[in-house]
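In the design runs reported in the main text, the only information available to the sequence generator was the tokenized backbone. The following block is the verbatim input for one such run; it is reproduced so that readers can re-run the procedure and compare outputs position by position.
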């Protein structure tokens, strides 16, 4: 790696920069905070949660010392409750609706209390739920992100044999590869995945589902060691094999690649996608992670904020966020924006990138803004301008309909235009929060069971 892409910080300094911004509560803190809850009837916080967790109930159980019971309430409504405790925008969901916020201007710290209970459960050897008695039905789930994991847990509890297929080396989807490291580590995500695997859910990684291949693929049936090893060697698996192996399929594939800027120089070394950048950070191989001295991030959504803050924490001297509209129009949450400002990120509003300059390696970014067109020194450009839809996969491989925005069309049961295939998560809603995907996975499991 060229020296200009190496962090100037020591491993210890980087580790300190990526410490959790919201640390776990102590037992004393949790007891005091749980004691503040009014345990509202028809609680507004429950209605504000997309998965409708019984928040007063789980907090009351914390107050009484029943942490296992508290975690059960949470995971019963949201199988990725530990993830959501860390990454949910609670300011605009449950905590934003808290009655205490109106009364004393300080909501109950629902997210941190939820983490307190779920961390206790995940650190225990005791399994919260058990696999239901087999009903003889099999479901294949494509994608192991929030929607896929949620659907898998409910189906396993209902007695289905569930297999999840994922193209990545590790399961968890964006929970594992796409969350800012100071919010949630890979270890946290994989611990939650482990709870779902304990229900008998089989997860087959390094597996890409494709259309029919010209050469026959290795069989994916069975779970004997020889066949599992054979499957791991099989990178591409035709969807027809999944159709033959399962009674129902559930698509939880998220959305596609980061959109292209469509400007000169986009192919230069040093230009990368925000999700690719965050994925590198999730390895925690700090000295192998590329980081420029002058970094520009294009976009102003929450992923862009994750990129600028992490670039700064990796040791970039100057990090600039560039957005084509005004600050008030930025889609990122206000508290995320404040975090970036505290980290020393600079902002260029109403500004568009027009060209990337350099020979081999990029050296500048040309932009057009209120002050006209000019160049800024730059050795790394990170694109965070949204993602494409996976329309060809849906239409050509799966044979299902999409709407004018490229989202999979489903009915109230989360069933697609192919009766055998259900879908949920970002591929249906176009991109939302992890908690929204978890709820769609739950609804799909209910739809499949009915």
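Verbatim output:
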């Amino acid at each position: 790696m060229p020296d200009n892409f190496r962090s100037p910080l020591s491993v210890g300094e980087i580790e300190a920069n990526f410490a959790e911004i919201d640390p776990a509560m102590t037992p004393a803190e949790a007891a005091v905070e749980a004691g503040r809850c009014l345990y509202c009837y028809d609680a507004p916080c429950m209605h504000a949660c997309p998965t409708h967790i019984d928040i007063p109930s789980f907090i009351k159980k914390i107050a009484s010392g029943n942490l296992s019971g508290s975690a059960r309430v949470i995971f019963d409504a949201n199988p990725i409750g530990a993830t959501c405790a860390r990454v949910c925008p609670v300011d605009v969901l449950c905590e934003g609706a808290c009655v205490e916020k109106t009364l004393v201007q300080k909501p109950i710290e629902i997210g941190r209390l939820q983490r307190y209970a779920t961390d206790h459960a995940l650190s225990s050897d005791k399994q919260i739920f058990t696999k239901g008695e087999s009903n003889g039905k099999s479901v294949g789930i494509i994608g192991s992100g929030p929607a896929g994991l949620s659907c898998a847990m409910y189906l396993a509890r209902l007695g289905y044999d569930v297999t999840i297929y994922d193209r990545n080396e590790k399961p968890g989807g964006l929970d594992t590869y796409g969350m800012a490291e100071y919010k949630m580590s890979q270890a946290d995500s994989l611990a939650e995945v482990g709870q779902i695997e304990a229900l008998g859910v089989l997860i087959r990684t390094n597996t890409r589902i494709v259309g029919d291949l010209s050469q026959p693929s290795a069989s994916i049936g069975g779970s004997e060691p020889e066949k599992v090893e054979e499957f791991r060697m099989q990178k591409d698996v035709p969807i027809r094999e999944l159709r033959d192996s399962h009674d129902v399929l559930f698509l939880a594939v998220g959305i596609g690649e980061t959109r292209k800027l469509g400007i000169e120089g986009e192919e230069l070394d040093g230009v990368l996608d925000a999700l690719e950048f965050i994925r590198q950070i999730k390895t925690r191989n700090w000295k192998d992670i590329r980081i420029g001295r002058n970094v520009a991030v294009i976009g102003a959504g929450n992923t862009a904020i994750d990129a600028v803050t992490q670039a700064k924490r990796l040791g970039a001297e100057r990090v600039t966020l560039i957005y084509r509209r005004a600050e008030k129009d930025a889609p990122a949450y206000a508290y995320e924006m404040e975090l970036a400002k505290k980290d020393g990120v600079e902002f260029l509003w109403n500004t568009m990138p027009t060209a990337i300059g350099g020979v081999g390696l990029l050296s500048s970014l040309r932009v057009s803004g209120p002050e006209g067109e000019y160049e800024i020194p730059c050795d790394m450009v990170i694109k965070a301008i949204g993602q494409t839809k996976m329309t060809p996969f849906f239409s050509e491989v799966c044979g299902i309909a999409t709407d004018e925005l490229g989202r999979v069309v489903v009915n109230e049961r989360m069933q697609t235009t192919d009766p055998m295939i259900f879908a949920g998560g970002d591929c249906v809603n176009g991109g939302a929060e992890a908690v929204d995907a978890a709820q769609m996975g739950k609804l799909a499991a209910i739809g499949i069971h009915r």
